[in-house]
Design brief:
The structure is a single chain. By secondary structure, this protein is an alpha+beta fold. It has one domain: Trna Endonuclease, Chain: A, domain 1, CATH 3.40.1350. Helices cover about 40% and strands about 25% of the residues. The protein has a five-stranded mixed sheet with strand order 1-2-3-4-5. A hairpin with a 5-residue loop joins β4 and β5. The radius of gyration is 16 Å and the shape is globular.
Length: about 120
């Protein structure tokens, strides 16, 4: 049996990605960047000290070009924020799959945060 809802989701991955971005921002109590994806906008959403770039996929894998990391690093640095890449492996409803929501930080930033948190981490 055909599922027209799923067919629409497959036909428009950009819309699904935007929904996943909004859901991810909400989970991080973050504010969406107006015009995200436009030439002048920096990152997709920000929360506290972090500027996030968000990538979502309905598939079980995605490539990770170095350019994505360099882009968010430059944009975050310009705003005096820490860069973060949020990756969401989504369901057709744009919700994260089990174990499908991840955040990537630069190694130096991760080490700094762990050092500040103390030995209990």
């Amino acid at each position: 049996m055909k599922n027209s809802y799923l067919d629409r989701q497959k036909a428009n991955p950009m819309k699904s990605g935007r929904r996943a971005e909004a859901l991810t921002a909400k989970r991080h109590s973050a504010r969406l960047v107006p015009g995200s994806g436009a030439a002048n906008a920096k990152g997709d959403f920000s929360s506290g000290s972090f500027l996030f770039e968000h990538k979502a996929t309905l598939r079980g894998s995605m490539s990770l070009p170095l350019e994505w990391l360099i882009k968010i690093e430059l944009e975050a640095t310009a705003l005096a924020k820490l860069p973060a890449l949020a990756i969401t492996y989504t369901t057709a409803a744009s919700a994260p799959r089990p174990s499908g929501a991840w955040v990537m930080l630069r190694e130096a930033d991760f080490q700094s945060l762990v050092a500040r948190a103390g030995p209990e981490v």
